[in-house]
Description:
Layout: E1 4-6, E2 13-14, E3 20-28, E4 31-38, E5 48-49, E6 53-60, E7 62-67, E8 70-75, E9 78-82, E10 88-91, E11 98-105, E12 116-117, E13 135-138, E14 145-148, E15 151-157, E16 167-173, E17 183-184, E18 188-195, E19 198-202, E20 205-209, E21 213-217, E22 223-226, E23 233-240, E24 251-252, H1 272-279
Antiparallel strand pairs: 1-21, 2-3, 3-4, 4-11, 5-12, 6-9, 6-11, 7-8, 7-10, 9-13, 14-15, 15-16, 16-23, 17-24, 18-21, 18-23, 19-20, 19-22
Amino acid sequence: MQYVRCFDQKKTVDTGFPGYRAQFLSSLESALMIASHIEEGGCGPGLHYHRSDQLYYLLVGTMNVQLGQQVHRIEAGTFVFIPAGLAHRNWNDGPGSETHFEMIIPAPSPMVPIALMVETPDDVPVDDRTDDPGYTRRIHPDQLNPAMPGLRLLPLTGPAMGCSNAVVNYMELDPASAGPDTHIHEFDQYYLVLEGELTVEVALQKHVVPPRSLVLLPAGVPHRQYNDSSTTEKHLAVLAPPPQPGKPWDHGVDFHANGDDHIGPQTVFVSASDAAITSQPRTRYR
């Protein structure tokens, strides 16, 4: 599995909406993760809603986002929570292009429409409609709380804030600091590195993760993370589905390679025609 997925303009696709290109980073059952880029004057879909929660984090530029009847203009470093059933839309009137990280949690089932279009917020069907107005939240460094030595966090959403499908925290990790030792979760976890470098050891791999990179840590996969650089590292941590109240968020594990490696049958790499040729008896010449 590719545990680290970097933002890459070459991997974006034209969404069909004006000036809007998207890179689909991950689609596990827990979440659909998208890097979205909208040029000045561009926009996403018209007024619509989802049957999953949608979350934005604006990395670059400015965005106009309508949540129900309310329009917000946000700047880089702002988080947006859009609950399932809330009509919304977003557009960019500049200056310049914008880039935002988009999460749809949980991921919609295959063959099910992601966006359901409406004319007005009141047109959302009663069975799908929500009374939750959603919200935007700007990151302010003085709001962070210590979680571990050298690690500070700011909760952006979770069950107590209206999101029953995920927990999202903004986190800062000082140089020479780390999260817990090697551990696993009962939920999927994602890191979006915003600034600095985050070193992640996952399974038997080690990655030094640069900004604008998404780290995928599926449930049950051993990992740990630390800051081996000389500057503070900043990232979003997404837990989906959220941890259960009163239960441990992580379980420490001992994990290492024991050298008992096995190579599978190499015939899977040989085509049928090549296999037929190599299996024919050789003619000996005298």
